[in-house]
């Protein structure tokens, strides 16, 4: 007689993956020299001339129409911004504002008309769907307003941590987290301020050491700087040479991928760059003369 079929062993249970706990803000020692670099970037960005300064979520929304409309326009500007240049976002937001960029009006706008209005932004078909779904949620669940909590915002279609924390900062003047974009993720890893594989890991690591008083300005400051490093190299090189610490500035922009020798050759600035690099004092061009000139007391 055939032997009875053996009972198969029970399947092995997978070990439960314990998600590592994120470090508490302020719990990690800051990287050496970060304040010098940060203050240098603040100086280089003092003119506020990057695309994000004119066409970002802080510059575009209409506050004079009331806080709920302002908050909604901040939300939409961020939703349109992914995979899209700021100039295109600015053009699109202004077209929407001419159309009427309010929750009620967008809710009453047919999807095909909305899609035409935002047709120049990247992934406009998906964004049309997300915006239409979002206004429906805002009306049904939030009295037509944007929720104040970034964690409630993340429940909206197409809104992740980066957008939610920026919206909270711009629309509500609160900052419980840092919005990290791809520029910041790249630069902070190149500076070795973080060691991360994606922007969300960068956010967690940065929040662990960056003092909270910097949180509400770090995004606009560094996004604009990243845009200038990649898209406006001649302008940034000139600003670096004209700043109070040109030698440090040249080293910084080189570390972040700007070949100042190549750009300097295009602009005829080779001698100026050479003089800066040879100067021990990182101050102005007269520093060497002051170091060697005899004092008035010498005769």
Automatic annotation (TrEMBL):
One of its GO terms (cellular component) is nucleus. Its EC number is 4.2.99.18. Residues 1-10 have a biased composition (Pro residues). Residues 80-228 form the HhH-GPD domain. GO terms for biological process: base-excision repair, AP site formation; nucleotide-excision repair. Residues 1-33 are annotated as: Disordered. One of its GO terms (molecular function) is class I DNA-(apurinic or apyrimidinic site) endonuclease activity. It comes from the Eukaryota. Belongs to the Nth/MutY family. This is DNA-(apurinic or apyrimidinic site) lyase. It comes from Grammatophora oceanica.
């Amino acid at each position: 007689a055939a032997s009875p079929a053996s009972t198969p062993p029970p399947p092995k249970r997978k070990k439960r993956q314990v998600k590592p706990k994120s470090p508490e803000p302020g719990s990690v020692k800051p990287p050496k020299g970060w304040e010098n670099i940060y203050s240098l970037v603040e100086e280089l960005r003092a003119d506020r001339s990057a695309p994000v300064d004119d066409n970002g979520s802080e510059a575009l929304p209409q506050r004079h129409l009331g806080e709920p409309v302002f908050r909604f326009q901040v939300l939409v500007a961020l939703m349109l911004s992914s995979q899209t240049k700021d100039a295109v976002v600015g053009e699109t937001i202004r077209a929407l504002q001419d159309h009427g960029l309010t929750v009620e009006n967008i809710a009453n706008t047919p999807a095909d008309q909305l899609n035409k209005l935002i047709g120049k932004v990247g992934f406009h078909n998906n964004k049309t769907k997300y915006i239409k779904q979002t206004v429906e949620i805002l009306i049904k669940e939030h009295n037509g307003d944007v929720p104040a909590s970034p964690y409630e915002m993340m429940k909206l279609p197409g809104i992740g941590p980066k957008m939610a924390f920026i919206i909270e900062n711009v629309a509500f003047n609160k900052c419980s987290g840092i919005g990290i974009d791809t520029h910041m993720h790249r630069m902070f890893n190149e500076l070795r301020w973080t060691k991360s594989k994606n922007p969300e890991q960068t956010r967690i690591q940065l929040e662990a050491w960056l003092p909270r008083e910097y949180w509400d300005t770090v995004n606009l400051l560094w996004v604009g700087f990243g845009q200038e490093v990649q898209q406006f190299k001649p302008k940034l090189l000139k600003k670096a040479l004209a700043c109070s610490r040109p030698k440090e500035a040249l080293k910084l922009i080189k570390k972040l991928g700007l070949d100042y020798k190549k750009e300097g050759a295009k602009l005829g600035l080779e001698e100026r760059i050479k003089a800066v690099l040879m100067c021990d004092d990182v101050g102005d061009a007269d520093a060497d003369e002051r170091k060697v000139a005899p004092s008035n007391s010498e005769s």
